[in-house]
Design goal:
Layout lengths: L26 H12 L11 E5 L2 E4 L4 E4 L2 H4 L8 H13 L10 H14 L3 E5 L2 H20 L5 E5 L8 H6 L3 H4 L9 E4 L4 H7 L4 E6 L2 E2 L5 E2 L2 H14 L2 E5 L23 E4 L10 E5 L1 H4 L15 H14 L4 H23 L2 E7 L2 E6 L3 H10 L2 E2 L1 E4 L2 E4 L7 H25 L1
Parallel strand pairs: 3-15, 5-6, 5-7, 7-10, 10-11
Antiparallel strand pairs: 1-2, 2-3, 4-12, 8-9, 11-12, 13-14, 14-17, 16-17
The chain binds pyridoxal-5'-phosphate.
Length: 429
Amino acid sequence: MSGSGAAPGPEAGRGTGPSGPDSAPSDLERVRELSERHLFGTYAPAPVAFARGEGTRLWDLEGRTYLDFVAGIAVSSLGHAHPDLVQAIAGQAGRVLHVSNLYHIPEQAEAARLLAEASGLPKVFFCNSGAEAVEAAIKLARKWGRATKGSEAVEIVSAAGGFHGRTLGALAATGVERYRAPFEPLPPGFRSIPYEDLEAAEAAVGPRTCAVLVEPVQGETGVVPGTAEFLRGLQALCRRHGALFVLDEVQTGVGRTGAAFAFQRHGLEPDAVAAAKGLGGGVPIGALLAREEVAAQLVPGDHGSTFGGNPLACAAAAVVLRTVCREPFLARVRELGDRLRAGLERIGRKTGLVTEVRGAGLLIGADLTLSASAVVDAARERGLLVNAPRPRTLRLAPPLTVTEAEVDEALGILGEALESSAASHTELA
Ligand SMILES: *Cc1c(COP(=O)(O)O)cnc(C)c1O
């Protein structure tokens, strides 16, 4: 079963999909047709759909298997169908799915306790996505600025190349022009500095600044880790000006980088941290964590979310946090990340097709000399899922439960995909 799966075998073929033998058109064709007819064209999906998964492996509608080194963009932290997560979700669904924040929610209190333990930040606001966690951070920072520095102190400084989400506030902080331009005017009160430019930060942060908001590793830009010097410099600057030092750990948080939170790798002490992607292991959930005194700015009526922190999402998050945010689990993430990075570097030396490998833990970017989307397609055809956040950059973010054997298998497939893409590239040229 799962051991064989590198190359999608021809024996897999039709008739093994869930909707019965030899349906024509194929299950995938029907999904594509329906999607094109009825869904907004906001995504450009690859020609594949999945029926089920187990661990690092996925099976498509035709029964072909894939190693999932995308993990839903750093979301499926425990892999697919993890027994503890399945049991917690099913059990919670059988008790109560939703009640509202009009009442105390035991599962929410427990997830908050676990997050506080993992991060050292004692207060948590739950929401449903990364963008919402960032929105909560923006509102918190504005109220903090007004209360502690005066009514002018509402400006948020963020970094070029940073990604904070698609809502208007999060977009205003996002430093990628093509995401922003079509939707202007965006909310005012945001300033952008180049990432890694402390001099620009010095010039931008002042009496009007309520917060600096950056990613410790810029994920969507191609996995660009911030240096300890830059991040510590920003933190010092914030302290000096009484501004909040806010980290967007939506992609890096909850074990992804081999620490519970990436800020811990550099001994940082942020005032607030946004988390989301990996937190629910695939169940939608976001969270803003903050220091006691900072969180106290938001009082009843200031902020809220109907679904935020509901029992289902929090029961899932509790399983993820209990599994991931402890040793030796995190040490394994670091070891597997090292193995994957070393393998990519080896492929680079052998083929000359990989020019740089970056990242931390199991969040890895690799710059290529050729089109990353061609390599993504070639890898998928060979049974490996990776994605391309930039035209010449691959991102690898497997489940944190990935095994050594799966890392090695993925490296083998990726090596082949690179060489075959390079060969067809040369034929075209
Ligand atoms: C994905 C991401 C977001 C947005 O999260 P959504 O759940 O898509 O709203 C924000 N910040 C970072 C760093 C991200 O990687």
